[in-house]
Protein 1
Amino acid sequence: MNDELVEHEIGAEQAFVDRVYLQLEESARNARQLAREGENRGRLEHEGGLVERDAMVFQAARRIAQLDAAHEGLVFGRLDLQHSVSDEPRYIGRIGLRDSERDSLLIDWRAPAAAVFYQATAADPQRVVRRRVLRSTGPQVVGIEDELLDSEALAELEADGVELPIIGEGALMAQLSRARDRTMHSIVATIQAEQDRAIRAPSRGVTTISGGPGTGKTVVALHRAAYLLYTDRRRYESGGVLVVGPSGVFMRYIERVLPSLGETAVALRSLGEVVDGLRATRHDEPAVAAIKGSARMATLLRRAARLQAPGSPDHFRVFWRDDVLTLDRGRLGRVRRQLMSQGRRNRQLPRVSGALLDALWGQVRGERGRERGREAFEDDMLSDDTFLDFVLAWWPPLDAPTVLGWLREPEVLAQVCDGVLSREEQQLLTKSWGGDTALSVEDVPLIDELRYAIGDVPQRTEDERDLDETGLLSGGRDLQELMTVADSLSSGRSWTPPMHRIEDDPFAHVLIDEAQDLTPMQWRMVGRRGRTASWTIVGDPAQSSWPDPAEAEVARREALEGKERHEFHLSTNYRNSAEIYEHAAAYAERVGLDADLPTAVRSTGVPPRVLTGVPDLEAAVREAVLDVAGRVPGTVGIVVPVARRSEANAWLASWPELADDAPAARAAIDSSVTPSGEDRVVVLTGLDTKGLEFDGIVVVRPEEIEAESATGRATLYVVLTRATQLLTTLS
Ligand SMILES: Nc1ncnc2c1ncn2[C@@H]1O[C@H](COP(=O)(O)OP(=O)(O)OP(=O)(O)O)[C@@H](O)[C@H]1O
């Protein structure tokens, strides 16, 4: 390649990029000015001024956020079109910008006019002659990659004296060969045609994106979220977009993609964080996870939601006028059943005292009492603290963690397990909830299920009047006090964070990543957030770690019931070198995984290293890790069986050669958490690697990872497909 020519072209592009940055500064200044004007207008204290201020400040603030975010490779694409279409090049960027004459300077990658940038191919150039990708560091153009799409049109242009040199090896290969760091990057500059179709698919019903490892499902889904926000901002920003992924580590891995595309209004949540107010990171062991994830839990929890609060009174007795009035077990049982038949338990709170008064009044026989009448009877009872205390203790307002807490007692659990869980399964659950254990990721859908089964406590603002009418709030009692009563029944567990109300759960769009791993209970949980939403679902069944795919499929169908389907399939593996993927695919075939095998496009000439029968494991791992870390510039993952995680972290922390690359390893020795900080070299378990990628992977004792659970083979397949450059396995 002629260096002078390259420099000349870079210089010409730099001049354009400089112009864009000047414009960007001016637009940012204008946006800030707009924000200030909005503030001032808000000081005029009439209503119109305030509404107007909110709208202006909101718009301006969003624009500022967008422009700030756009600093990473703001301008990345250029299209030279046949002159019959335009003799000006068309520039594509992360956001759209107009110059001071309001002429288009930069086209947003999501705009219809940018679609051709991704869809044109040499076979179907769509009047594009040359597609150019600019590589930049901040505002500095550092490289150019061209693709010639229409050589005949180029010849014609050259005959007219127009020069369009073709430079570089092609943008995609350059992009795929880059070193990996700890976060995923956007692919706006190199989205491929089949990916573009999935990104721009209209948002109706359920869009599923399938494909084997490394085909870009995650990154495509994130670009789709950005695309949807662009096309219908009002709907998706006000209704919300929820992105759900497998783990906190994964969410941190993908968290920068959307902001780098100028989008910040998306809720990114791992499966342990889907319920507002809860945050679980710990996983139960596979046998417990299999029980907690099963749809059978829904039956069990429905029963639990109807249980009488453990420790609550089952008898009430009062003298009134000439009568002894009693509520015994039988009477209370009838009132309970009647109330339960009318709707969710917490929603019945305003009716409880009325129903009990009915049952008591029916027993008034004495003449003096009948003469005074029902109204006087109610007045007397509702000013009687013993009656009010009984009502609150017998039918306390409940929150879902409290009800789950009841099931920690084996006798209470046994009451709801008949025909649902075996005795051994009950014992496993009891053990998992014993002691001071924090909530697990698998507990979160159980709490959500209970939230819906018991309903929200009527809200003070909306329903205060209702409650007041019952007398429950008389004498200075309020909802706060009701909740305190509930707490006193909650057997000392620590799972009572504030949770939003269930009516606040729904989103306008729900995006599920690694969908093959959702358990039936998790499908029910996310399903409730997307009843009226459109959906994007990405996954690869061969990578599933859920042992009962048929049961998960039923729950998935129920969650998406009645929605139309649109399916997209991705067929190229952009992550692994061809050599690494060939090894992984051969493994999948050998162990009988029904895998969707994509084509890996990038060859490195370096096959995986497979070491067997190593005598000294630590020495062998050390040699392998140092070798890989010395040969790749980016991240290295040491993947180990769960039982070896602490040991492996201790090894890593003790190797002086890697002290700078793995400062967090020491802290991870005793904890059961995986990679933190910005370490280049990390220890992970098989399940931790889901969705992630590394330049190099060293797999320690793959046969043990395989034997760890019923789906260990799928987990090992995932592990073998995480490396971009080098893979070593040690058995
Ligand atoms: N068009 C593209 N241009 C550049 N890089 C791409 C492109 N498509 C995908 N990639 C890269 O390929 C890698 C794999 O992408 P991604 O993680 O989205 O795949 P996936 O299908 O979700 O993988 P898995 O199912 O194995 O977790 C990422 O580094 C991503 O940036």
Protein 2
Amino acid sequence: MVSPQQLCNLMFVLNPISGDIDKSELESTIGRYCRERGRHVAFFHTTGEQDLEILRRKLAQEAYHAVFAAGGDGTVSLVAEALAGGQVPLGIIPLGSGNGLSKDLNIPQDVEQALRLTWDYQVLTMDTIQVGGNFSAHLADLGFNALIVERFDKGEARGPGAYVRIATQEYISYEPEHYHIKTDSEEWEGPAFMLTIANANTFGSNVVINPEGKLNDGQFEICLIDPFPNAAAPGILYNLYTSGFNQSSYTRRLCCSRATITIPSQKQVLVQIDGEPMHLPTPIEVEIMPRSLHVLVPPIQQPTTA
Ligand SMILES: Nc1ncnc2c1ncn2[C@@H]1O[C@H](COP(=O)(O)OP(=O)(O)OP(=O)(O)O)[C@@H](O)[C@H]1O
């Protein structure tokens, strides 16, 4: 593993559309910041088309000491997938709508503050997950939230207001699906409002779906919300926003390193993985990839001595 003073050759992967944020000054801000500190920087601008393949080719051509994702969770997941299994660490400059993984890693949400990670950092080696053969670093889910993410993705409107509007419309007619889950330690079958495959803890919306999950414990959690009556919705929402997932009588959690998820009535199912909706054939095989990704995180604050 490289030490702080050796992080000299950096690549920044910039997503021009993430978070609906103006990034016209971003490249010059990052370039100036890094050059003032003696760093060499290269930039890769995503297009939304074959970014993973092109990025992998670029990374194979030059030895970078770290690769930073400047975008939202989708951009972070793209760069993480390109780096997983190797020694080069991922850095994150949170510039998306939600920035869920960066929040779980205590990465500052301000660009200048996050850029400190180019010289002041520690390396966390975290697990990643394979969900039906697809890479996930953060959270994936089936059921209600996946439906909302897909509707949101197809729509024009952006921001938390649009998400809440779509969720309210869909909630009225939503029919929970029936799932069969077989993990390496238990089996569960029943209907669920939503089912989250969680490596991390918190959605970009600040909903804490998996408060006790650890990013480097060699396990993932399947967090289930049972179908619930309308009257229970405010209490469930309150618990989700206050790290109280386990306190609700409508939630359950399966902890495992491998699972098979079957939806008896469907051959294909909608899944959102790190914010990207996709349709996958069932059953879905889920497997942890222990300690497969190095990430730059802020150094642990040492207590000040008098
Ligand atoms: N130049 C581009 N034009 C259009 N779409 C792009 C471009 N570059 C990347 N994308 C798309 O951007 C999406 C990823 O966006 P990302 O998740 O980083 O931001 P976000 O959705 O605003 O934030 P968050 O996921 O944190 O809520 C992917 O679907 C990717 O295909």
